Every structure is written in structure tokens, then in C-alpha cells.
Amino acid sequence: MKIAIIGTGYVGLPTGVGLAEFGNDVVCIDKNEEKIKALTAGQLTIFEDGLVDLFQKNVGRGKLRFTTSTADGVKMADVVLIAVGTPPDPVTKEADLQYIYAAAAELAPYLDGYTVVATKSTVPVGTGDEVEKIIRQNNPRAEFDVISLPEFLREGFAVHDFFAPDRIIIGTDSDRAAAVMKELYKPFADKTPILFVKRRSAETIKYASNAFLALKIHYINEMADFCEKAGADVFDVARGMGLDQRIGHRFLNPGPGYGGSCFPKDTNAMACMGRKYGVPLTLIEAAIRGNDLRKTKMAERVLKQVKDIKQAKIAVWGLAFKDGTDDVRESPALQIVEQMLKNGACLRVYDPQAMGNARKILDNRVEYASSELEAAKDADVVAILTEWKQFSEVNLTELKAIMRHPKIVDLRNMLKDKNPENYGFDYQCIGKL
Ligand code: NAD
After folding, report:
1. Known catalytic residue: 262?
2. 329 beta partners
């Protein structure tokens, strides 16, 4: 099949690579000229495990190409995927749909023959109706269906999740569009549940899923706070809870709060939708408030470890919103860093993948190190803010030798099993005394 993807970011690029790997002819479109220039020159613009080989292979065999021209990509396409951003409005926190609407207006004139326009971006309920209207206005004679095709990939696992998704959700009432999607997703037919639902249900499934996961994280974070006060151990609690198959083990890791480009914005957008439809989503509202507050509390937890904030040297390990990605959007680590800077702290930071993106935000307000040990040199405390595996592999004897004061605040519980106390560290993790 011929596929055009509008928006070549964390979703559009792995999706394009994956669809090309299945033998489709894929054109990835983006407005960002630098991105397209880099991709055309064979350079990946995001870090994702396993992406580079598939990218090079499919560019090499002519199945995948990149362009800034919507016309070029859309004209021949059987399916156009919209994968542009839907960031939160800075004031209302609703999903800002300007990029979706612009993409719909831009692609409309080039639709040629029956085309399925699928919204992969996370969009509020009813957006499909609006996209349909915009395309119709801009090209009254176009033959098309607009469907919802929400994306569930996890950053850091985008390639894995493309080839082995838990489910594929297709929102459409059109039999013709459903037939095209069945053909496109044929390689998954034997191994993956493919659910055909109404467009509005598909739009809701994405938000309902992300909000639920965010609630689960917030829940275990509150339990961690409780355990610290009550003398329980949240790891035992989580293990005990997770053995109940109705609960399950995943998303029961306490930490500094959820972040990233999806959970904060999607919980906010869902809460806005609830208010719009007059249905208070009180659990989601509470999780949003609690999660926001948590970052401040976590920064205080680190700062409490030093006598004089302005004189102390604090090493920060991790800036990405989670391991396996260079993405720092809504990163709890960066929010904690910002909070510490506001209090006058002096920070030396390190992240294995996100230094470039973090530098754009932190500029010269922090010092940058090229390894976790370099960041920790002469430090009064190490704060572990992202769960990179390499942080759990650090040599604690070596670490102690280079620090001014051997203190670790481990907001990701990376070193808990190594018992840093036994090496002479003053060690704090989350969820146990
Ligand atoms: P992103 O910011 O990484 O990429 C979006 C891209 O779209 C950018 O490169 C931008 O230049 C491009 N763009 C915007 N308007 C355009 C236009 N009119 N024509 C061509 N290109 C245009 O965003 P992302 O993280 O890939 O997210 C995209 C959508 O997918 C969002 O709605 C997000 O909520 C959703 N989503 C993201 C993830 C994730 O893990 N990042 C997972 C599931 C769903």
C-alpha cells in the first residue's frame, strides 16, 4: 500500500519505518525542514532502540522516503496518517488542535481517489468530525473517510510496540475504510487483537487508557508516601498487590511522578473533556493536582540533604522523562531541576541520551558532565531522577571515593537492591524508611 504520514516525530517516524518494513511504500512528511534534511541524509532525529537499522534498511530499498511537501506524499496515498503534535493549551490545558486542523486543510486538495485519512495523534472526542468537515470544505469532491487510529506506543519501546502491540484500535463506521485498514494491518491479524469501534469510542479509548495508567502511577506514589510514614515497605506492598491478577505488577513502581509528552497532557485534556460534557472526572483531577505537587516535594527532598543550598554541589543523574529516550518533554527530572534552580542550587547534570534536548532548555544554568561519575565528582549529594539502567550498575566504592559527602537521593529506586548504606552512603529511596 501507499502510505503518507504527516508529522515525523516520536510517533510518525517509528510508524513509518514499521509500515515500510512490512513492504508498504511510505512517505514521511514534516514541516520541519531540518528534520527532513537530516532524515534524507540518513540521520535519525530521535533516539529509539532498534530504529536505526530498520530505518537504513527501508530507506536503502526505496520503501521509505522523506519530504516537506504535503502534495508529494499525499497524492498517491491509499492511507494518510496524521501524526502531528497535540500539545496542551498553556492556559486551558485542553489539547491544542491547530496542527491537526492545519494538516487536514493542507492534505485535502491532494486527495486523489478513495483515501483513508487516519488520525494517529491523540485527539479529543469529536475531532474526527471536525477533520472530516475541514477536508470536505477544502476539497468538496474528495472521496475519503476519516478514521481514528490511536497510537499506544511507548517511547523507548517504539519499535517493539509497533511490531508487537497489545491491541490495534480502529474507529470507523465505514465498511470501506475498515476493509482498507484490515489490509494494512494484515501482518498483525493472527497475533494481535484488532478492535473495530465507533470513531468516538476509539478517540475515548486512548484518553481513558492513558488516564488510567497515570492514575495507577499516582496511586502507588501516594502509597509510597504512606509507607514511609507508616513504617511499611512499598516494594513489598506493590509485590503483594501485583500478585492479584486483577491489579497486575506493571505501573506499580513509585517514583518522582509521571511525566512525558503524553500522561500530563492527556490527563489534563481528559479532565477538560469531562468538564465540557458536564461529567466531573474527579479521580483524574485529583491525580493531576497530586502529581504536579509531587515534583516540588521531590525537589525539597533532595535539597533537604544539603546544609547550605547555595554552597552545595548537587549531581543530577537523568534528565529524560524516562529511560530509553532522549525526550525531555514534561520530564519530572527537568521539573525537579527547575525547582532546585529556583532555590539557588548549583547543579551538575548528566543523562546518557537527553543532554542535547535538555541543553536547549537549561542552557548555561547548570554544569554538564559527560558521565554519571563526572557529575558526582566533589558533589554533596547525588539525585537520581531518571531510571537509566547504567545508574544501577555504578561502582559504589568508586562513587563514594569521588564525592564530598556520600549522600544519594534515589527517586527511581535504582540502587535500593545494592544497599548503598553498606558502602557508607546516606541513602534515601522512595517508599521505605
Ligand atoms: P512530535 O512533536 O514528536 O512530532 C510531531 C511532528 O509533526 C513534528 O515534527 C512537527 O514538525 C510535525 N508537524 C506539525 N504540523 C505539521 C504539518 N502541518 N505538516 C507536516 N508536519 C507537521 O509529536 P509526537 O510525540 O510524535 O506525538 C504526535 C501525536 O501522537 C500526539 O498527539 C501525541 O499525543 C500522540 N502520541 C504520542 C506518543 C509518544 O510516545 N510520543 C504515544 C502515543 C501517542
Report:
1. yes
2. none
Q: Which three cell numbers stand for residue 83?
A: 501524526
pTM, full prediction: 0.94
Cell of 172: 470507523
Kind and range of the H or E element at 25? strand 25-29
User: Whose alpha carbon is nearest atom 32 of ligand 1?
Assistant: 121
Atom nearest to 120 CA in ligand 1? 30
Q: Which of 11, 72, 209 to mutate to test the pocket of ligand 1 (most atoms within 8 A of CB)?
A: 11
Q: Supply the residue whose CA is at minimum distance from atom 14 of ligand 1.
A: 84
Per-residue pLDDT in tens (0 to 9) along the chain, 433 residues: 999 999 999 999 999 999 999 999 999 999 999 999 999 999 999 989 999 999 999 999 999 999 999 999 999 999 999 999 999 999 999 999 999 999 999 999 999 999 999 999 999 999 999 999 999 999 999 999 999 999 999 999 999 999 999 999 999 999 999 999 999 999 999 999 999 999 999 999 999 999 999 999 999 999 999 999 999 999 999 999 999 999 999 999 999 999 999 999 999 999 999 999 999 999 999 999 999 999 999 999 999 999 999 999 999 999 999 999 999 999 999 999 999 999 999 999 999 999 999 999 999 999 999 999 999 999 999 999 999 999 999 999 999 999 999 999 999 999 999 999 999 999 999 998 7
At 254, list the grid cell: 513509585
| Sign of the CA dihedral with 91 first, then 97, 101, and 102 last | positive
Active-site residue (options: 28, 262, 272, 346): 262
Q: 206 and 166 in contact (C-beta within 8 Å)?
A: no
